[in-house]
Specification:
With about 150 residues, this protein is an alpha+beta fold. Helix content is about 40%, strand content about 25%. The chain has two domains: about 1-30, no CATH class; about 40-149, no CATH class. It has helices spanning about 1-25, 30-40, 65-80, 95-105, 115-120, and strands at about 40-50, 50-60, 80-85, 120-130, 135-140, 145-149. It has a six-stranded mixed sheet with strand order 1-2-3-4-5-6, sandwiched between helices. A hairpin with a 5-residue loop joins strand 4 and strand 5 (about 135-140). The longest helix is centred in the first third of the chain and has 23 residues, at about 1-25. The radius of gyration is 25 Å and the shape is globular.
Protein backbone atom coordinates (compact mmCIF):
# COMPACT_ATOMS: atom_id res chain seq x y z
CA UNK A 1 0.00 0.00 0.00
CA UNK A 2 2.85 2.35 0.85
CA UNK A 3 4.54 1.71 -2.48
CA UNK A 4 1.33 2.41 -4.40
CA UNK A 5 0.94 5.74 -2.56
CA UNK A 6 4.54 6.59 -3.37
CA UNK A 7 3.96 5.65 -7.02
CA UNK A 8 0.81 7.78 -7.16
CA UNK A 9 2.68 10.72 -5.63
CA UNK A 10 5.55 10.31 -8.11
CA UNK A 11 3.20 10.10 -11.08
CA UNK A 12 1.15 13.03 -9.80
CA UNK A 13 4.25 15.19 -9.30
CA UNK A 14 5.47 14.28 -12.81
CA UNK A 15 2.10 15.15 -14.35
CA UNK A 16 1.95 18.46 -12.48
CA UNK A 17 5.55 19.27 -13.39
CA UNK A 18 4.98 18.49 -17.06
CA UNK A 19 1.72 20.44 -17.03
CA UNK A 20 3.39 23.50 -15.52
CA UNK A 21 6.31 23.23 -17.92
CA UNK A 22 4.03 23.00 -20.93
CA UNK A 23 1.83 25.86 -19.81
CA UNK A 24 4.88 28.09 -19.38
CA UNK A 25 6.02 27.28 -22.91
CA UNK A 26 3.18 29.00 -24.76
CA UNK A 27 5.57 30.38 -27.34
CA UNK A 28 4.90 29.09 -30.83
CA UNK A 29 7.94 27.06 -31.91
CA UNK A 30 7.92 28.87 -35.24
CA UNK A 31 7.55 32.32 -33.72
CA UNK A 32 11.27 32.96 -33.27
CA UNK A 33 11.93 32.32 -36.94
CA UNK A 34 8.90 34.41 -37.82
CA UNK A 35 10.18 37.22 -35.62
CA UNK A 36 13.63 36.91 -37.16
CA UNK A 37 12.20 37.01 -40.66
CA UNK A 38 10.08 40.04 -39.75
CA UNK A 39 13.33 41.92 -39.07
CA UNK A 40 14.39 41.38 -42.67
CA UNK A 41 14.95 42.91 -45.04
CA UNK A 42 16.51 45.60 -42.88
CA UNK A 43 17.63 48.83 -44.52
CA UNK A 44 21.16 49.60 -43.39
CA UNK A 45 22.11 52.74 -45.32
CA UNK A 46 21.49 54.70 -48.49
CA UNK A 47 23.17 57.52 -50.38
CA UNK A 48 23.37 59.17 -53.77
CA UNK A 49 26.47 59.69 -55.89
CA UNK A 50 26.35 61.67 -59.13
CA UNK A 51 22.61 61.13 -59.49
CA UNK A 52 22.74 57.38 -58.79
CA UNK A 53 20.92 56.15 -55.69
CA UNK A 54 22.22 53.21 -53.68
CA UNK A 55 20.67 51.36 -50.74
CA UNK A 56 22.07 48.57 -48.59
CA UNK A 57 19.77 45.95 -47.09
CA UNK A 58 20.49 43.08 -44.77
CA UNK A 59 18.65 39.93 -45.76
CA UNK A 60 18.44 36.54 -44.05
CA UNK A 61 21.34 34.13 -44.50
CA UNK A 62 20.93 31.07 -46.64
CA UNK A 63 18.06 32.14 -48.88
CA UNK A 64 17.29 29.92 -51.83
CA UNK A 65 17.53 31.48 -55.28
CA UNK A 66 13.73 31.76 -55.41
CA UNK A 67 13.56 33.40 -51.96
CA UNK A 68 16.35 35.81 -52.91
CA UNK A 69 14.45 36.80 -56.05
CA UNK A 70 11.26 37.42 -54.04
CA UNK A 71 13.09 39.54 -51.46
CA UNK A 72 14.94 41.53 -54.13
CA UNK A 73 11.73 42.12 -56.10
CA UNK A 74 9.91 43.31 -52.96
CA UNK A 75 12.68 45.77 -52.07
CA UNK A 76 12.91 46.95 -55.69
CA UNK A 77 9.18 47.68 -55.67
CA UNK A 78 9.72 49.93 -52.63
CA UNK A 79 12.79 51.63 -54.14
CA UNK A 80 12.15 51.61 -57.87
CA UNK A 81 14.93 54.05 -58.75
CA UNK A 82 17.65 52.73 -56.46
CA UNK A 83 20.50 50.29 -57.01
CA UNK A 84 20.49 47.73 -54.21
CA UNK A 85 23.22 45.87 -52.39
CA UNK A 86 21.92 42.87 -50.43
CA UNK A 87 24.11 41.56 -47.62
CA UNK A 88 23.67 38.85 -45.01
CA UNK A 89 26.01 40.47 -42.46
CA UNK A 90 26.28 44.14 -41.58
CA UNK A 91 29.59 44.09 -39.71
CA UNK A 92 31.61 45.84 -42.45
CA UNK A 93 28.92 47.72 -44.37
CA UNK A 94 30.08 51.11 -43.06
CA UNK A 95 33.68 50.43 -44.11
CA UNK A 96 32.53 49.17 -47.51
CA UNK A 97 30.36 52.26 -48.11
CA UNK A 98 33.15 54.59 -47.01
CA UNK A 99 35.50 52.98 -49.53
CA UNK A 100 32.92 53.04 -52.35
CA UNK A 101 32.18 56.71 -51.73
CA UNK A 102 35.91 57.51 -51.64
CA UNK A 103 36.65 55.88 -54.99
CA UNK A 104 33.67 57.74 -56.43
CA UNK A 105 35.26 61.04 -55.41
CA UNK A 106 33.22 61.63 -52.26
CA UNK A 107 35.85 61.05 -49.60
CA UNK A 108 39.33 59.90 -48.70
CA UNK A 109 40.59 56.35 -49.06
CA UNK A 110 41.85 55.68 -45.54
CA UNK A 111 41.54 51.90 -45.54
CA UNK A 112 41.39 49.24 -48.23
CA UNK A 113 38.15 47.73 -49.43
CA UNK A 114 37.03 44.98 -47.02
CA UNK A 115 37.27 42.52 -49.91
CA UNK A 116 37.07 39.32 -47.89
CA UNK A 117 33.88 40.54 -46.19
CA UNK A 118 32.42 41.71 -49.52
CA UNK A 119 33.14 38.38 -51.21
CA UNK A 120 31.51 36.45 -48.39
CA UNK A 121 28.57 38.65 -47.41
CA UNK A 122 27.37 40.61 -50.44
CA UNK A 123 24.81 38.09 -51.58
CA UNK A 124 23.39 39.99 -54.54
CA UNK A 125 22.93 43.41 -56.06
CA UNK A 126 20.32 45.06 -58.24
CA UNK A 127 21.66 47.16 -61.09
CA UNK A 128 19.98 49.35 -63.66
CA UNK A 129 21.41 48.64 -67.08
CA UNK A 130 21.87 51.31 -69.73
CA UNK A 131 18.88 49.90 -71.63
CA UNK A 132 16.66 50.53 -68.58
CA UNK A 133 16.44 46.92 -67.35
CA UNK A 134 16.70 46.30 -63.61
CA UNK A 135 18.65 43.10 -63.03
CA UNK A 136 19.36 41.03 -59.94
CA UNK A 137 22.99 39.90 -60.08
CA UNK A 138 25.06 37.53 -57.97
CA UNK A 139 27.32 38.81 -55.24
CA UNK A 140 29.02 42.10 -56.02
CA UNK A 141 29.33 41.33 -59.70
CA UNK A 142 27.30 41.30 -62.86
CA UNK A 143 26.44 37.61 -63.31
CA UNK A 144 22.70 37.84 -63.88
CA UNK A 145 20.17 35.96 -61.79
CA UNK A 146 16.94 37.50 -63.12
CA UNK A 147 15.30 40.63 -64.47
CA UNK A 148 13.14 42.52 -62.00
CA UNK A 149 9.80 44.07 -62.86
Amino acid sequence: MKSSKVNVLLVLSLVIGIGIGCSLDTKDPNSSSQNDSEKFPKKLDNYEIKGFKFAYYQIPKGLSREELLKVAQAIHEMETDTQLILVDDDSKVAEYIKYVKAISGSGEIDEPLPQEWADKHIIANVQKYMNGRWVLCESNGSKEIADLK
